[in-house]
């Protein structure tokens, strides 16, 4: 990605406590993440070199930002908001490629034959009604943006916090609207009170990605107070 949206209000809300040096480290890390579309490597020396963090203070700022705003995984430091933006970007790119294979924009002669049968001048009409598609153009419904803040709400409420990147991919795949998000959160609240999730210190709580992919919020669950005779089985 050579372009990404920078939400100034969101950024300032979450980073007002950072020093100027830490701000620079954060923006450098974001640029690197979007440019390469992959997690920040765990190997710190390569990260320092890539970001030109040469002094001890600069390197400390990089480590501070990574620890606060990124999640450490086996594949590197991941950032949920960045991953969501990248997935949305890829979805729009795939849609554009699909449209291109189908023929893309109609040729001018085709527009005259199919859409200009009332005798109006084609050039005048097209210039008057044409709205250029810019980088800020609202995507079609098939590539609708995903509300990352709602995923953060789900992640905060989910009791078993493992494999966050996979959970985010599952969320993006679902592309939940407001009604679906409400159902997910209601189902999660019910699941947290269920017998399986509360017994044995939560050993039977599934990974969040599994729970989302299998649409488990639609399950009918036994409450924690139900008797053994009515227990419906393991997850």
Structural features, described:
The protein is mostly helical and 235 residues long. The chain folds into three domains: 8-78; 84-115 and 123-143, no CATH class; 148-223. It has helices at residues 8-15, 20-36, 44-51, 56-69, 80-101, 108-115, 122-129, 148-157, 164-174, 178-192, 195-198, 208-213, and strands spanning 71-73, 76-78. The protein has a two-stranded antiparallel ribbon with strand order 1-2. A hairpin with a 2-residue loop joins β1 and β2 (76-78). The chain is globular. The relative contact order is 0.08. Residues 109-143 and 227-235 have low confidence and may be disordered.
Please provide the ordered H/E string of secondary-structure elements. Answer: HHHHEEHHHHHHHH
**Count of helical stretches:** 12
SSE class: mainly alpha
Taking pLDDT < 50 over at least 5 consecutive residues as the criterion, the unreliable ranges are 109-143, 227-235
Q: Please state roughly what percent of the residues sit in beta strands, choosing from under 5%, 5-15%, 15-25%, 25-35%, 35-45% or over 45%.
A: under 5%
Rg measurement, Å: 24 Å
Number of strands: 2
- How many structurally independent domains? 3
Query: What spatial form do the alpha-carbon principal axes imply?
Result: globular
Main sheet record:
2 strands, antiparallel
Q: What share of residues is helical?
A: 55-70%
**What's the quaternary structure here?**
single chain
What value does the average pLDDT take? 77
Kindly report the spatial arrangement of strands forming the biggest sheet.
1-2
End-to-end span in angstroms? Answer: 40 Å
């Amino acid at each position: 990605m050579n372009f990404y949206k920078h939400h100034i209000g969101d950024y300032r809300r979450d980073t007002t406590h950072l020093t100027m040096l830490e701000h620079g480290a954060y923006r450098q890390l974001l640029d690197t993440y979007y440019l390469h579309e992959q997690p920040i490597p765990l190997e710190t020396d390569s990260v320092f070199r890539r970001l030109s963090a040469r002094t001890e203070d600069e390197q400390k700022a990089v480590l501070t930002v990574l620890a606060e705003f990124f999640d450490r995984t086996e594949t590197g430091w991941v950032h949920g908001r960045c991953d969501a933006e990248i997935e949305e970007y890829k979805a729009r790119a795939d849609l554009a490629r699909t449209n291109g294979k189908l023929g893309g924009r109609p040729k001018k002669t085709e527009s005259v034959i199919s859409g200009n049968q009332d005798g109006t001048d084609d050039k005048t009409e097209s210039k008057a009604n044409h709205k250029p598609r810019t980088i800020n153009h609202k995507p079609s419904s098939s590539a609708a943006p995903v509300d990352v803040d709602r995923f953060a709400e789900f992640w905060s409420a989910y009791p078993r916090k493992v494999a966050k990147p996979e959970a985010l991919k599952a969320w993006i795949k679902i592309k939940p609207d407001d009604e679906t998000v409400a159902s997910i959160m209601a189902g999660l609240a019910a699941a947290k009170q269920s017998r399986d999730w509360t017994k044995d210190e939560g050993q039977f709580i599934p990974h969040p990605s599994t729970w989302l992919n299998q649409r488990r919020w639609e399950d009918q669950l036994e409450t924690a107070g139900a008797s053994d005779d009515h227990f419906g089985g393991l997850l």
